[in-house]
Every structure is written in structure tokens, then in C-alpha cells.
Predict the structure.
Amino acid sequence: MFFSSNLKLLRRRRKRTQEDVARALNMKRSTLSGYENEVSQPTVQALMAFSKYYGIAIDTLLNVDLYRLSDSQLSQLERGGDVFIRGSNLRILATTVSKRNEDNIELVNEKARAGYTTGFADPEFISELPVFQLPFLSRHKKYRTFQLSGDSMLPIPHGAWVTGEFLQNWESIITGHGYIVLTIDDGIVFKIVENLIEQEQVLRLYSLNPVYEPYDVAITEVKEIWKFVHYICAEIPEPVIPQEELLKTVAGLKKDMNILKSRLLDQKTHIRKSLK
């Protein structure tokens, strides 16, 4: 069990003394010290108290070595990402860390995209990807950069590098925002997403290029989701779009946005009626 070492780590991350935590949990400091130094074993009531205080499940406190997690993984856990607390399916993320124990940003280029479909959870495959750091991104979150393929997200061109933040809780997907979605059948796709998980157990994926029709992906087929952060591109966008193409583009985007707005309005109306 990792209970004693986990208690020390969590307390120190919150910059609390043993006296602070003991007082908050209505126990003696000597009792807490005994737990942290493996002198005594906690009661069920004590385990429940620690779980509530730190917002971390008893299973995690006992059986997961928190010292082996990266800083971003610990931060996610402390923000409520504990799968035992949330009752969600465990999403395993293979990752690499720097010598300072900070998460790297792995690069998945066009050549590696096919292998990523099956190797996304394989630490050996992930360890072979090129890595880099971006100092302006939070060190408490996990990022990965994927090379865009195709023209479905124009004006973001083929070959651009799209960076995403790993999303643990898929229920937090915001309709109308960009996400990088991994499925076994379609591989890596970058799309504007409509969250229909609660209603239909699917994600509806939209392209920025109006030539491409939106389509649904069953949530059971999704393996990873990364929230769009930014993209890097060596190309300068075309300064002028021919009038005819511009009209088609605007008309297509308006059509897609009207569909999204209509669905959101219907959902709000339904919620208001259900509350009356």
C-alpha cells in the first residue's frame, strides 16, 4: 500500500503542516503522524475523512503510488479527475517526462499517425516520438501536438501542427469548440465538435471546410480526445478569396452554425420546460 507516502505528498503539495490537517480532520497530530510514518493503520472512518478532505478516492490513496505521477497528472487528480471518485472509465495515457519530471509535448507527425492509432497507449511507441517544450503552456496540464492531414479544416492547411490538451472528462466537451479526436476506425481527426453524449451517446464532428459534411462518431469508438490549444503553420493564408468561393464558404458556415444554434435552443427550451 502507498497510503502513508501519499498522505505526506498530498499534505506537502497543499503546504499544510501535520497540525493543520489534524485540526481540519478533528484528530490528534500524533495520530496523523502515525499514519504518515506507518506506525499505525487507519480506520475506515479515517480513510473516509482523508478521501473527503483531499477529494481523492480511498482506492487511489491506498493502491496508487502518487509519487510516480507527473505534476500535470497530480494536478488533474487534485482538480477532481480521480476515476474512482467520478465513476468513469479509466483513460490510460502513455506519456514521457523531462529530466525535471515535467511532461513533454510529443510530436505525432504525418508518418507516425498510422502507428499512433494502435500505439497511443503503448509507452514504448510514445517514447520514440520527438518531444519539445513550450514555456507559455501550463506545466500542470498534458499536451500533445499532431500534424494535420488533408484540407477538411481549411483555412488551417495540410501539414499544420495542431496542439491539444489531454481531456480526461469527456462530459466537459463544449459544443462549437475544436478537438482532436482519436478513433480506431478513423484515426486522428481535428474537428469542431457538437457534444451529444448525454442525448445520443455520440459526438457530431464538423469540418471548417464546407465541402465536407458533418458526421457522427459513437462515443464507444473514441479512444482519446485533446482540446484544441493552438496551431503552428509555415504558410501565410491567402489574402483574398474569390467572391464566388467566399459566398459559398460563408453560406456553408452559416448553415452549420444555424444547425448548432437550433439544437442548443431546443435543448435550453427542453430544460426550461422540465424545470417548470
